[in-house]
Amino acid sequence: MGDTPLHRDGNWLAGPLSEILAVEPTRAWWRCPTCGMAGPLAQLHVYGPEPGLTARCPGCTRVALRLVKEADHIWLSMGGATGAFRFRTA
Length: 90
Fold this sequence. Notes:
This protein is mainly β. Helices cover about 10% and strands about 35% of the residues. The longest helix has 8 residues. The radius of gyration is 16 Å and the shape is globular. About 5% of the residues are buried.
C-alpha cells in the first residue's frame, strides 16, 4: 500500500464545509430520502423553539434537520441522524 493513508482526519472537511456553511441558508434545497419530496428550505415544517428547532418533511414528516442553541454552542444534526455536530459560537 505504500505511504498513502486510507483515510484523512476531519480537518480535510474544513474547506468544503466552509463553502457550504458560509452561504445564505434560504437558498438551500433539501431532498427527503424517505418520500423523495424536494424543495427549498421554506417548505420544511419547523417545530420548536424548545428544546431546539426541528424541521420535518411536509410530505412524510421525516426529520430533515435539528438545531439546538446553547449559551456558547450550536448543535446541528441533519437527516434524522442520531449524532450531531457542535459549533462554538462565542
